[in-house]
Design brief:
alpha/beta, TIM Barrel, 8-stranded parallel β-barrel, 9 helices, 14% strand
């Protein structure tokens, strides 16, 4: 397992250069670029920034999380759909300047629970995926789909939809452990998805909201995932919401996870000792 973290953790807190320096100083294996506001939204990213990241990154491995604010590959609005593809295509082209290992994509949401509407969204997602995969293959970028089905508005609320999409397009999975804890049957869905895992997002929550607590400070039973995490060779990205002091919270999350895995410490050992907001 290789510890990484998302630049989204530092939302409005630090600039990209300081985030990179902090990752190197604290010996992380990777950084996930959050390709959205405020740091890396596509029309704000200049080639010089990507080149400097590559030049100064040492042995860091990069992954990229595609934008989610107001865009989506399943949008029923044609204008939003075109803009979504434009942004995704331009982000994939970043690989020409700054190679990245993984391209994390959300399947999308549906505006209605009406079966006919959900079928329309499915068809849009499939057409979008055909186009996106062509662009990614040209740049030798691997797409992984993140499990996002934390409520009925998500198209992949039914895990069978996600599995069928991955099978049909030969895609890997970004397993978001926080998201799967909000599903109806976390362990059952995890077992169904386990063989697809290529990338991991990790955090904790109290099973009511996507809280993004540091690992070990919520209600997630990590005994379900410990065996897989010990053997996993990909990037494990800490996605922690702690605006007051994101750096301290990320390090706390990493330390807690190491204790869980190496010393077989149960999650009940850790308590939320401070308000990270």
């Amino acid at each position: 397992m290789r510890h990484s973290f998302s630049t989204s953790n530092f939302y409005l807190k630090e600039n990209p250069k300081k985030i990179l320096d902090w990752a190197l100083d604290n010996k992380f294996a990777g950084i996930e670029i959050w390709a959205d506001v405020p740091h890396f939204y596509v029309d704000n990213v200049k080639e010089d920034l990507l080149k400097s990241y590559r030049k100064e990154s040492g042995n860091l491995t990069f992954s990229v999380h595609t934008p989610i604010y107001g865009v989506g590959i399943g949008s029923v609005n044609p204008g939003i759909l075109r803009e979504s593809f434009r942004q995704l295509e331009n982000i994939i082209k970043w690989a020409d300047v700054m190679p990245f290992e993984i391209f994390v994509l959300h399947a999308g949401t549906t505006p209605s629970d009406i079966p006919q509407v959900r079928n329309i969204v499915r068809d849009i997602i499939y057409r979008s995926m055909e186009d996106i995969k062509k662009v990614a293959q040209k740049k030798e970028v691997e797409i992984v789909i993140e499990n996002t089905g934390i409520s009925d508005r998500y198209w992949d609320r039914d895990v069978k939809n996600l599995i069928t999409l991955m099978d049909d397009f030969e895609l890997g999975l970004c397993l978001d452990i926080g998201h799967i804890n909000l599903c109806r049957d976390p362990e059952g869905e995890y077992r169904a998805l386990e063989k697809y895992i290529k990338h991991i997002h990790i955090s904790d929550n109290n099973k009511t909201n996507d809280d993004h607590f540091p690992v070990g400070e919520g209600a997630i039973d990590y005994s379900i995932y410990n065996g897989m995490l010990r053997k996993f060779n990909g990037l494990t990205v800490h996605e922690i919401h702690a605006p007051a002091d994101p750096a301290e919270a990320i390090l706390r999350s990493r330390d807690n996870l190491n204790k869980i895995l190496v010393k077989n410490v149960s999650r009940e050992t850790f308590k939320r000792t401070k308000d990270d907001v």
